[in-house]
Amino acid sequence: MRRRRADRSYMRATLRPRGTGSHPHPEVMQTVELTVRRTVGRSLVFQTKVLEVDANRDDPTIVVACPEGLDPLEHHFDASIAWTSALGRMEYAVTTRPERRGRGRVWLLTLTGPLTGVQKREYFRADVSIPVVVSWTDGPPAVSASTNGTEPQTHRLAGVVLDLSEGGVLASVSGVPPPVGTQVQSVLRIDDDEIVHAATVVRHVSLAGGTGVALAFADPSLHGDRLRQVAFEAERKRRRGD
């Protein structure tokens, strides 16, 4: 009974929104998604880290690391920042401007409007570092010498899961990822176990040193209890500063 009460207290704590007043904001060192909309060409989506948050003003300023591959001196007047909290997905429209601080070149994000959307999150998520292998088949069939027939081409891509929930993952991979909509198999290595899921690629995200691939599991209940336990334990360690 004591353990159950402790677990309930922990879950209630995770449901407290970050930030104060009418402007919830991400935590320092939290990974956020930054979308930059250009006048010509498609929008660019990046992941970056929050370095500072100045919430003691009417319009909070969020300081983030300049995403790799972008000009650190650029200004952007049509952008948005999004992140996940215990309440779901938070998103604000922002402008960006460059500044030099102790860490070097950074971007200052200024909110330009109210919270534009909160999507209720179905599964608890946590930052982790777990090896994963993603495999899929596509393209024209390749001739198989052993069977004198044809077989589809199989691809395998190794990576690291950065964001985990029982419903899916965000993994960093170093190779060319499968296209959005591709049906894949993901194999997570947790301790000495291999957690296998059928999944669908739902989006790509630019990351420092690679590409982020978001996967949605076909059957979240298959290993849901195990992955939920891993996510909760990772969050407990983060809160303790382990």
Overall structural class, as computed from helix and strand content, comes to mainly beta
Radius of gyration: 20 Å
Mean pLDDT: 78
The CATH first-level class of the largest domain comes to Mainly Beta
Specify the overall morphology. Answer: globular
Which series of helices and strands comes N to C?
A: HEEEEEEEEEEEEEH
Instruction: State the strand order across the main sheet.
Output: 1-2-3-6-5-4
* Helicity, as a percent range: 10-25%
Number of domains: 2
Tell me the β content: over 45%
Number of strands: 13
Task: Describe the protein.
The chain is mostly beta strands and about 240 residues long. The protein folds into 2 domains: about 1-120, Pnp Oxidase, Chain A (Roll); about 125-240, Thrombin, subunit H, CATH 2.40.10. The chain contains 2 helices and 13 strands, in the order αβββββββββββββα. The protein has a 6-stranded antiparallel beta barrel. It has a 6-stranded antiparallel beta barrel with strand order 8-9-10-13-12-11. The protein is globular. Residues about 1-20 and about 140-145 have low confidence and may be disordered.
Key terms:
single chain, Thrombin, subunit H, disordered N terminus, 242 residues, 6-stranded antiparallel beta barrel, 54% strand, globular, Pnp Oxidase, Chain A, mainly beta
